[in-house]
Every structure is written in C-alpha cells, then in structure tokens.
Amino acid sequence: MPKGKIVKAISGFYYVQYEGGLVQCRGRGIFRQKKITPLVGDYVDFEYRDKREGYILAIEERDNQLTRPPIANVDQAIIVTSVKEPDLSLNLLDKFLVLVESKAIEPLLFFTKMDLLTDQEAVLIKEKLAYYKKIGYTVEFLSTKDKEVNHQLSVYLNNKVSVFAGQSGVGKTSILNRIIPGLQLETDDISESLGRGKHTTRHMELIPFEQGLIADTPGFSALDFKEIDLEELPGCFPEFVNLQDQCKFRGCMHIKEPKCAVKDALDHKEILEDRYKNYLQFVEEIKNRKPRY
C-alpha cells in the first residue's frame, strides 16, 4: 500500500504526493463518521486505480495541526510583522508567538518595510526587537524592495514545511509571490481608514521551494486563544520557561505568587515590560472567554 503526503486540498479532493507522482484522492467514509478531516500536510496511506481516482485509507498521527489555515505537520511559522504601514504592534506579535508556541511549531520573526523608517527610527526599532533575539528567536529585517529576500529566506526554508503568519497588509503575500515565480496570489492595498489590509487568500496548497514546502496561505485568519488553557500560557513564553524552576511554587502563573523568578527578572529589567503586560492581557482574555461545550 503506497504512502504519501497531502499537498493540496480543494472541494473534497486531496492531492497526494508520493514517489510515483501525484494522485487525486477522496477520503473514505470512515473519516466523516469519525469527524476526521484529512489536512494538507498529512502523511497518509492510500490506494488508487489511476492518477485521478484514489482513496485515502489512513492518516498517520500528526505532530501538530492548525485550524486556520487547515494544515498539519508544520515545522516552522514565519511570523511577518511590518514596522510601518501598519505600525509595529508587539501585542499582535506576542499573540502570534503564543499561538505558534502552543502548537509546538518553531517561530521565525521577519520584520518588513524597514526602508520606510528613518535611520534613527530603524536603530530604535532594532534595539527594542533585540530582546526577541536574546530569548532565542530568529530575527530578520527586510526592506520593501529587498532583492535579496530569496537568499535570506532560502537559508531558513530549506528542508522544512513552513507557514506564513501575520496581520493583513504586512507583506506576507508579496514575499510569497516574490520567492515563488508564477504563484500570483492576490494582494490588496492597505485601507487608509482602517490601517490594515483585506484578507485575499482563498487557497490551500503546499508549494515546493528549494528543498522545502511552503503553505501558499498567509496564515492565521483569526487570533484568539480558544484552544489554549490558562495553565498552558506560561509555557508559550520561552523566557518564563527558562525561569520557572526557580519559582517557589510549581505551576506558578507569575502574577501574584510570592518568590516568583519571573517577576524578580521583570523587576531587574531582564524581561521586556511590554511583553509581560501582554502576557497579563492574554491571561485575562483566556479567563473571560466564553466556555466551550
């Protein structure tokens, strides 16, 4: 029985890549009965009569999965954040990071539109964002007309399954169009009144790039914490994880507990104050969300 990987999903058809080529498949009825939906990125067992009539028989256990976009077994998320138009928002950046960390996906941070800043503004932005590099994240700065983007990205995308994430209007789709000739995803200008772009991507497919695969969607279409429990949140902040064993109480939430190593590091300015404030805001968001049934 052949094994393969779903690289495209559209209208109930799943396109499975295997060593013999590409086969158009449907899912067996058993998946609907069990309320299991095959996802792009899934490793599957399948059978086929010809390249246009195959059936997925089994789905291997997933390392991770995202709901929006619907994709499984992602190695890394390229979080694209603009420094201007729209302006840099550490709150949005940290929200993306929490969502990616909660799925055990490695985040890479790409900051775009650096050429729209003055030299002084660029220095100040880089100084602030140095904190993210300090706590272990990969950080890259890109200009709007940067011709070296292919070279910069290929270093990170080789032999990986990557998904792009970020607020609308920050340049995700433009980057994808630039690095994958012929892709021609739609882009929209930013609405001046709203300060953000419109969502334009409608398609879900893994596109070959170098020796890796890239999801051809700019990523998350919703930013909420519906799938994250309150107790999980501190584990989505790597600088908190590095200090948690030094806290007096196991399971410390780093808010009001005595002898908390995270709050001590905050007092000594070893943790970025804006990021800690975002953490407290996310705690409240999770506490105040409507219960799931």
TrEMBL record:
The EngC GTPase domain sits at 72-221
Q: Where in the cell is it found?
A: Cytoplasm
Statement: the UniProt record of this protein carries the keyword Protease: no
- What keywords sit in the KW lines? Cytoplasm, GTP-binding, Hydrolase, Metal-binding, Nucleotide-binding, Ribosome biogenesis, RNA-binding, rRNA-binding, Zinc
One protein family per Pfam: RsgA_N
The residue ranges of the CP-type G domain are: 63-223
Q: Which InterPro entries match?
A: G_CP_dom (IPR030378), NA-bd_OB-fold (IPR012340), P-loop_NTPase (IPR027417), Ribosome_biogen_GTPase_RsgA (IPR004881), RsgA_GTPase_dom (IPR010914), RsgA_N (IPR031944)
Presence of the UniProt keyword Zinc in the record: yes
Cofactor list: Zn(2+)
Q: Which family does it belong to?
A: Belongs to the TRAFAC class YlqF/YawG GTPase family. RsgA subfamily.
Comment on bound cofactor: Binds 1 zinc ion per subunit.
Provide the Gene Ontology terms for cellular component: cytoplasm
Its recorded name reads Small ribosomal subunit biogenesis GTPase RsgA
Q: Which CDD domains match?
A: S1_YloQ_GTPase, YjeQ_EngC
Task: Write down the SUPFAM superfamilies for this protein, in alphabetical order.
Answer: Nucleic acid-binding proteins (SSF50249), P-loop containing nucleoside triphosphate hydrolases (SSF52540)
- Residues bound to Zn(2+): C247, C252, H254, C260
Task: Describe its function.
Answer: One of several proteins that assist in the late maturation steps of the functional core of the 30S ribosomal subunit. Helps release RbfA from mature subunits. May play a role in the assembly of ribosomal proteins into the subunit. Circularly permuted GTPase that catalyzes slow GTP hydrolysis, GTPase activity is stimulated by the 30S ribosomal subunit.
PANTHER family reported for this sequence: SMALL RIBOSOMAL SUBUNIT BIOGENESIS GTPASE RSGA, SMALL RIBOSOMAL SUBUNIT BIOGENESIS GTPASE RSGA 1, MITOCHONDRIAL-RELATED
Question: Quick one: a GO biological-process term for this protein?
Answer: ribosomal small subunit biogenesis
Subunit-structure text? Monomer. Associates with 30S ribosomal subunit, binds 16S rRNA.
Which Enzyme Commission numbers does its entry carry?
Answer: 3.6.1.-
Q: A Gene Ontology MF term for this entry? A: GTP binding
Gene name of the encoded protein: rsgA
Per UniProt, GTP binds at T112, K113, M114, D115, G166, Q167, S168, G169, V170, G171, K172, T173, S174
